[in-house]
Specification:
- This protein has one domain: Rossmann fold (3-Layer(aba) Sandwich), CATH 3.40.50.
- The protein has seven helices and seven strands.
- The relative contact order is 0.15.
């Protein structure tokens, strides 16, 4: 089992990068130095490379912020509602604004409002990671904000000017919490990972989508 796990990790790193690697690459190629991590949670995907950034994390759930602080993922933290960022932060105050596994927890109206604020705060790039369409999810870890309230599709994000990368393989293979649907789980995880070779460039078939938008610097 350990050998198979090592193979899967190597596959992700060298052949089919996962969303953390994709986010890191998007930040690197746009030469972002500062980042606002909206709804950062306890295990932000930037933790692998956050030492290269002036990163600020915000989250409404204090236990998540406390866990993130222990890992020293961000330089600064704010416990606040994500829809308050438009009042808290100035326009063009961060090179990149990231929302990973966040907008699906908001209503459509709230989500669109948040995206508009993110696009104003960002100087270079906005990055959003979310399930492809609505995926049911309930509360867990005593965190009421973990419930899913909306779904976001490829075409609607493209209409907003986002480029889309498909993540986590075929949508039909995964369910709640992005877990594979069938057993043996290791086998189906391998199949899902292999399907990432296709879904990366065909995101409408992917379980999750990584959405990237270059912000107009003249705005």
């Amino acid at each position: 089992m350990n050998i198979m796990k090592k193979f899967i990790d190597l596959y992700h790193q060298k052949i089919s990068p996962n969303f953390v690697t994709e986010i890191e690459e998007e930040i690197r190629k746009s030469k972002c130095k500062s980042l606002l991590d909206v709804g950062c949670g306890a295990n932000s995907p930037i933790q692998r490379f956050s030492d290269t950034l002036d990163a600020v994390g915000i989250d409404a759930f204090k236990p998540s912020i406390n866990k993130s602080k222990l890992k020293k993922i961000h330089k600064k933290y704010y416990q606040m509602e994500v829809l308050q960022i438009g009042d808290k932060f100035k326009k063009k105050s961060f090179d990149c604004v990231l929302a990973s596994d966040l907008i699906e927890h908001l209503t459509k109206k709230e989500g669109n409002k948040l995206i508009n604020m993110m696009e104003k705060i960002a100087k270079k790039r906005v990055i959003i990671f979310t399930p492809n369409g609505f995926v049911p999810q309930g509360e867990y870890d005593s965190n009421p904000w973990q419930v899913h309230n909306s779904g976001w599709g490829v075409e609607e994000m493209r209409r907003r000017g986002y480029e889309i990368i498909g993540i986590n393989g075929l949508k039909c293979l995964r369910g709640e919490y992005a877990l594979v649907r069938w057993k043996p789980s290791l086998f189906w995880k391998i199949i899902s990972n292999l399907s990432q070779l296709f879904t990366r460039n065909h995101p409408k078939f992917a379980f999750q989508i990584l959405c990237i938008k270059e912000v107009n610097k003249k705005d």
